[in-house]
Amino acid sequence: MGGIVFKGRDIISIRDFSGEELLYVLSIARRMEQRPQPALMKGRIMASMFFEPSTRTRLSFTAAMKRMGGDTIGFAKGEVTSTKKGETLWDTVKMIEAYSDVIVIRHSLEGAARLSAEAASIPVINAGDGTNQHPTQTMIDLYTIQKEIGKLDGITIGFLGDLKYGRTVHSLAIALSHFKAKMYFISPTALKMPEYYLDELEQKRVTFHETDDVLKALKHLDVLYVTRIQQERFADPLEYEKFKNVYKVGPDILNGAKKSLIVLHPLPRVGEIDPALDEFPNAAYFRQAANGIPVRQAVLSLVLGAVK
Ligand code: CP
After folding, report:
1. pLDDT tens-place string over residues 32-42
2. Is residue 285 included in any domain, yes or no?
3. Which of 39, 83, 196, 285 could disulfide-link to 69, CB 3.0 to 4.6 Å?
4. Does residue 220 carry a catalytic annotation?
5. pTM for the whole thing?
6. Residue 207 domain-assigned (yes or no)
7. CA of 57 to the centre of ligand 1 (A)
């Protein structure tokens, strides 16, 4: 596509991408899924720097790279690195860029990925920075919605759960603003979507509603995007206890919903989705997680200039 350049680019915030660019990533992901490329990354090394726990993101990036013939190095927790001896993130990144072609980083601090990108001359991909952003999860979410529903334009989505700390919600709401999506933000008041995100959506003329009652939104929804209450972000454990069981989505949610409703969740789930829902075709969250491979293959091959 004319004018779209990904080679050498960092993937830090979903705000850095236009709607056209996001659709382009999805088109490459589709190509990756339909026509696997087992040698595309031969001789390339991906470094994964995970300072926070992860199952899906770290392993799907690793699998994506390996399935394209590439190699990986990295660590799954900061404790095993020389940051434990006091080395700065900046210096750590300066070292790792000498050993690899692309860096994938997850960190508990907002801005850590942006700082890493400033330190590195190779592409840096944000795999989640604190409560801020998780842009490749958002690309997976968009890909899943497009694949399951057949479109992104004009959908109605309900975000349910911890909207204050849930970085995947923050990224996805901004991304969907390119596609005239209507949004319901469903949460207890204490965990509502931060005001600055709502202001941004208002400026982009997005239609949204806030409620604490999923039943008020349900019949309108094409997508119900459930999130866990983010225990690790609460300063006060008692506050977490207050909210940890506030929503539970099970098969009964399908009564009163559109027949075509899909339920998404970035996972892990910790009680907010009843496993009894899994057997219904509406439960798309495991298919969503599986889409991590083609989408992350697309992202890696684009920033490394292996596809155009
Ligand atoms: N969705 C997601 O980021 O999962 P992990 O925390 O397991 O990587």
Report:
1. 999 999 999 99
2. yes
3. 39
4. no
5. 0.96
6. yes
7. 5
